[in-house]
Records
---
Amino acid sequence: MTSRLSSTDMLAKLVSFDTTSRYSNLELIGFVQDYLNAHGIASDLVHDETGKKANLWATIGPAGDGGVVLSGHTDVVPVDGQPWDTDPFVLTEKDDGRLYGRGTCDMKAFSAVALHMLPEFIAAPLKAPIHLALSYDEEVGCIGVHGLVDHIRKIGVKPRLAIIGEPTMMRVVDAHKSIRSYSVAITGHEAHSSNVHKGVSAVMVAAELIGKIAEIGERLRLTGDDTARFDPPFSTMIANTIGGGTAQNILARDCRFTFEIRGLPQNDLDKAYEEFRAFALESVLPRIKAAAPTADIQIRRRAYSPPLKAAPGSDAESFVMALAERNAAEAVSYGTEAGIFQEAGIPAIVCGPGDIAQAHQPNEFLDKAQIPLCEAFMRRLIARLTA
Ligand SMILES: [Zn+2]
């Protein structure tokens, strides 16, 4: 047996692995696997196709159905270009009561507390299992968790619910928006910019397509949120990156941009996308091809993560409200892996330490007071599963 690490020490350990999504997460996964092994807990790894990343699945307590999944993603967003006052990969406690470091809030703290609690989970006479589910590549479009959910299906386990420990300040979140993201590549045709009739400016085509995005986005805004639970209270459609052109006096050959749609669970956002697609490919594309046959528009879907749909009064919701000692559930606008568990038939609720306001920021931190709250949450989980 290894000596027991406090939740904070465990968090320091997890933060020390630079698991920015573009890197491998195997060192962190290896550390967790060794730690579990040292406590006699076996785990399954589900690798990506490159073998450089893995999800981890482990079960504590009796095998079988009706267990509770504690789910966390291992990856973090980049620190590039951010003005950090401390080393982002060294957990730094300051006398303001905060623990600084990349991933402290989003979202290594939940996983750290769960791992800290492991000896208590093992010692408890659990009547239903506790599953640990750690994923990769959440921050780049909830990619890894699909393999994890497939694994759960493959081994034939039917958990009662999954708790996704994204930062909610330990409040209970039962609904969030969906996220679709796309990239668009436009190929124009070069000409001297005085000869607009002899070419196609990819930049101008991009502007036209982004104008359409703004138009659809405005309509989504006016449609509003009939549940009045979301902030902002509407679905959003927005372009966030763009690049193209080589010189002021050349009609641009290339322009690329990305856009996203964040949708209220009750809205049909396929329609918003379809309107954009039809405009781009059925209205704009024939026109630019008539001007230059090699002109083109390519639209590629980058990622889709489904919404988390509220299930008021459900077993999962009341179970997690009891653990969190809350009497209401909230909706959030950011996406999580919860919708993917829900789509796979595993009821999911988001609840974890930290404030989303600090996520993805320089000097990301966790308020230390969140840790005992999360530990108490886990102890109530033990109590529920041993009762
Ligand atoms: Zn996160």
Note: The pocket of zinc ion is lined by residues 73, 106-107, 138, 166 (CB under 6 Å).
---
Amino acid sequence: MEAKLIKGRILKGIGGFYYIQGEDGDVYECKAKGRFRKEGIKPAPGDKVIFTPPVQTQGGSIDEILPRKNSLPRPMIANIDLLMIVASAGKPEADLSLIDKLLLYAAYNHVPAAIVLNKIDTVEDAGTIPQEYSKCGAQILQISAKTGQGLDQLKELLRGKFTCLAGQSAVGKSTLLNAVAPSLGLETGGLSKKTDRGRHTTRHSELLELPGLDAVVADTPGFSILECMDIEPEQLREYYPEFAAVTGECRFDSCVHDREPQCAVKKSVAEGIIPEARYTRYLKLLQELIERREKRYV
Ligand SMILES: Nc1nc2c(ncn2[C@@H]2O[C@H](COP(=O)(O)OP(=O)(O)OP(=O)(O)O)[C@@H](O)[C@H]2O)c(=O)[nH]1
Ligand SMILES: [Mg+2]
Ligand SMILES: [Zn+2]
């Protein structure tokens, strides 16, 4: 029997084997051809591929990786439609610097982002996130995985997309996925009584299908975000859509909106147009990038 080529998407890779969902819906085990390694390409979950399915004693192989529209390095996944940043309205207290870094990570890697504010059932008002991020370019949803509030909106957000989830431990990423697709039965954890922080219940990443939504999600464990981006301090400003309205209005074209005179961004902050706290964290992140560069060049 002659092997035929089919198109599919890689769901996961384990020990040199890739599990590919073909256009026919079945999942096939394949190895990557040697030439990929020679070319320095490693197939990743999310990759669209042309492959030869296994037949009898002949193992399957990935023959071609179709061009990627984008990819995220940690964990390595390709062709992401959305980075869903999950935060908690209650406990654990939201780490806004982390949200900033994840927004930066998404923009840097050409992936659209959304912010999902979960556990809205545990607080009387949603806090500062909706206002602080109102102009950051990401849609913001207020949700409770527990009561079901906002879940229909979340389903619409996920429908038809390949979404990657990120956020602090114990904000409810796995619980939200279980709420939209109970058959997943993902393990969820609690907060440590001592520290009010999460326990990193989810420790690995694979693509999960959401039945009925034609959607796939990757529930990703934590990682060090800044380390996997090559951003110079002068470039940071380009990743803040809040600054776009006044771009070009600063006295100096090279203005990084820090200590320069006649800065239009600082003026907008003073006028309350750009949220002050988000700008203050921008300055901190800018400083972090400057220090990183100084260390790199000594
Ligand atoms: N009250 C309330 N509790 C929630 C909600 N969503 C999740 N939780 C609880 O928060 C805890 C942590 O949830 P997980 O889903 O394990 O959190 P996670 O983000 O997957 O955490 P890691 O896997 O450690 O990264 C669990 O005890 C959940 O029951 C919610 O909307 N409201
Ligand atoms: Mg989890
Ligand atoms: Zn400026």
Note: The domain at 6-67 is CATH 2.40.50.140 (OB fold (Dihydrolipoamide Acetyltransferase, E2P)).
